[in-house]
Amino acid sequence: MTREEILALCRKARDVGAVKHEEFADYIVVLESRRKIGDAWQATEHAYMAVDGKLAMANEDHRKQGKRLDFHEPKVLLDNPEQLTLQITVTSELYGARHGIATSRKKGGAHAEREFPWEVAETSAIGRALSAMGYGLLPGAGLASAEDIVRATTTQTSDKERAPRRAPLMSANQRNKLIEMYRERHGGTEAEVLQGLDAVFVGAFKHPLADASVEEASKIIGQMIAQKMERAKK
Q: Whole-model pTM?
């Protein structure tokens, strides 16, 4: 799917308040699915917006219109050795309250679900709540975010089954956002910033920035945003 095709898809999606989907096209991840038709396999591409893109849209919309957007504490619906299910409510002065529900599969799920069940469920639930407000609601994508689809296609398998596919790498916009936020906090040259981010990703995921997936980049961006908000409160 070319960038022009992605932009055309964005224009089919309804504007939300003061923002347009095409303004956030760099947050869109194109994923491929395959299905067998007769004796042949056919590949189909689908575009999904990452949760950080939906957050960026929502924050910008409310900033432009001078309205509040509040994220409430997660509500635990289920927490056992098999799974964690959370509900997040998002309240907007513009659109009212919406909630999202998401589950992390502690057994049999993707690596991120098993290692970081709370973060994964919380991120997905926020994304679904924002989708319910119209943010990142692309034609054909439903309420799912890019991270949701990636997890669905990288489920853990047994040794006798086919190995899971490699999760798609982070988008260019996610990379730029990471660089921007790290430099804002620590300063330094581009080389120093990249070296610092490599250390962050090696510590969190055992690989450098260049190998970061969409979901991993979203997780670190979310942590940086949370840290920035905590600093602002002091």
A: 0.71
